[in-house]
Model the fold of this input.
Amino acid sequence: MTLDHPTLAQLAEHVENAELNAHDISKITDDHPEMDWDDAYAIQDLIRQRKIARGARIVGFKAGLTSYAKMKQMGVDTPVFGFLADYFSLPDGGEARCAELIHPKVEPEIAFVLKHPLSGPGCHIGSVLAATDFIVPAIEIIDSRYRDFKFDLTSVIADNCSSSRFVVGGSMTPVAGLDLRTLGVVLEKNGQVAALGAGAAVLNHPATAVAMLANHLGARGESLPAGALILSGGITEAVAVSPGDHISLRIQGLGGVSIRFA
Ligand code: OOG
Ligand code: MG
Done:
């Protein structure tokens, strides 16, 4: 930890205002190059508290930068973790409003819904699968608050890992009997294939990302509650979208989910 509390609070307000007002900012490490991971997660926690104080509910968590495609696209090499607030959720087949966003991109993800709480340390694929109620296909809409979507790890963590909106499909699939590694993933933009992948792109097994998230929270005295929705991370590189675009995701055996950009 290198920053004092007033500075952390001021940065939380600065970054959250950029999200709420949909305007970009320069990355915060430009002014605070000494910032470390603890500072970054402390800023993210303050943003979470600001939202809760305003009446928002935390409905889940996410892992990001969990696939090689994403790490390569963003030029960073370590998974990061963030939270999901109630108002991030959009209905399947619904509309995302670009006017509320800066420069949105979409990612195909496998989402987990827990039936039991999960707490680290010591979580592994087995504990995640045992605690999972079902999985659903998800489109995450990310929207870095940083200019031109350019950041380093500490800046992106402080910005709640670019979290902005998400859409989950409505067919619940139990994990028993599924090999999440070999599920094929097809993301289409305006009817054309925009990205292709398989579940194993995420850390060789998407449940590994959930285990890492639970271990990360455990180290900070937190856990994943029963009922939480967890996004395990983009399987392919993220795809930029503009008003008028229609995005549809199909995941083998899990069904589909779609969203329009207005
Ligand atoms: C950071 C968030 C990455 C994922 O699934 O990899 C993410 C970013 O690329 O802006 O959500
Ligand atoms: Mg994501």
